[in-house]
Amino acid sequence: MKKLPEWLSEYRRANYNYVRANYPNLPEKAIPTPAKPKDTANEITKAIIKYCTWRGWQAERVNVTGRWIFNKRANRQLWIPTSGTRGSADIHATIAGMSVKIEVKAGKDRLSDYQKDYARRVIEAGGHYLVVHSFEDFYNWLKNKNLLP
Asked: For every one of its 149 residues, what pLDDT tens digit does the chain have, with 9 covering 90 and above?
């Protein structure tokens, strides 16, 4: 049997511990095993947020795109720009008391100038800014900060 990567074992262990602590009467065979996150920005983002929740940390997805609304008076769709900070990271988290902003990039996606400026401001303010291309990247950062059990 092929051995699981260390990061995937920890991902699944955190899920198991969370379920066991929060649903103590759930039979062992009913505890779900989370699938390996796919290498898309959406899947990586969801996996990081879940993992943070399982570990008792806080994490939330931040959407800074605008949106379309239908304007009845003009009888057409109008684009409403975001009121959020341009370049803001995909995930804002508090991990072990640290402010951490996480930008998730998949494939050949790269930081925009707005994102680079945002990262600089976060770091200058004493926060942590990560660019991750996989859950494993996030796991390795946690490992380097000695934040894993």
From this structure: 688 999 999 999 999 999 999 999 999 999 999 999 999 999 999 999 999 999 999 999 998 888 888 888 888 998 888 778 889 999 999 999 999 999 999 989 999 999 999 999 999 999 999 999 999 999 999 999 999 98
Name the residue ranges covered by the structural domains of the chain: 36-144
Separation between Cα atoms, residue 111 and residue 75, nearest integer Å: 37
The two tokens of residue 114 are: 């707005």
Instruction: State the virtual CA torsion across 20, 23, 25, 27 in degrees, nearest 10.
Output: -60
- Residues 12 and 34: beta-carbon distance below 8 Å: yes
The correct CATH number of 36-144 out of 3.40.50.300, 3.40.1350.10, 1.10.472.20, 3.40.1190.10 is 3.40.1350.10
Question: Cβ distance 43 to 37 under 8 Å?
Answer: yes
**pTM, rounded to two decimals:** 0.89
Q: 91 has which bridge partners?
A: 61, 102
